[in-house]
Specification:
single chain, alpha+beta, Pnp Oxidase, Chain A, six-stranded antiparallel β-barrel, 6 strands
């Protein structure tokens, strides 16, 4: 988390919206073999927990149950050029959006994992405009059963939310507008849009 309080919104709904929108995270944990990280799709339970699954063969899988882990969800990011400011005495920086979720992890049972996969696919299939949504029952049961044997489901109960929304909030509005224009011209509309909507 960035130490500047300008970039730390006290807005739980905003954090949850980022988790929901991105739906993908890095999960970090300390293990007896050293620190490990896994990249995984994420499902919010909408009651203070997130669920994810990893390959059973992943080095971190055997260490997560009962561990305290850190889950990081990243949103858009972009380089900020000093040339976009009106004053010359500036330095380059990076604007970005990220939320750290820290909490205890528990392993899910087979029914919980199945439900997680249903929720995950329903969420992302709904984003595809054309065609009929894919569902688990469209694949032979034997194939699904084999897939389930190869993955492990987990739920992280979030005990701390640590957001960073670094969107030039420490700059005057006129300078933010200049940065927004620079970002749009440079092909970074995601950060520019977040600056318009969240850094005003």
């Amino acid at each position: 988390m960035h130490p500047d309080p300008h970039f730390q919104p006290d807005d739980r709904a905003l954090c949850e919206a980022l988790v929901e929108e991105v739906g993908f995270a890095m999960i970090f944990a300390a293990t007896s073999q050293g620190p490990r990280v896994v990249h995984a799709p994420l499902v919010s339970t909408r009651d203070g927990a997130v669920q994810f699954h990893v390959s059973r063969r992943n080095a971190i899988a055997a260490h997560l149950d009962g561990a305290t882990a850190l889950c990081v969800v990243n949103g858009p990011d972009a380089y900020i050029s000093p040339r976009w400011y009106s004053q010359a005495a500036q330095v380059p920086t990076w604007n970005y959006v990220s939320v750290e979720l820290e909490g205890r992890v528990r392993r899910m049972d087979a029914d919980g994992l199945h439900g997680q996969l249903e929720a995950l696919t329903a969420r992302h299939e709904s984003r595809i405009a054309q065609g009929q949504p894919w569902t688990l029952d469209k694949t032979p049961a034997a194939v699904i059963e084999a897939m389930l044997k190869g993955i492990v489901g987990f739920e992280l109960e979030v005990q701390q939310w640590r957001p960073t929304f670094k969107l030039s909030q420490n700059k005057p509005a006129s300078e933010r507008e200049r940065v927004i224009a620079g970002l749009e011209e440079a092909g970074s509309p995601g950060v520019a849009q977040l600056m318009r909507s969240l850094a005003a």
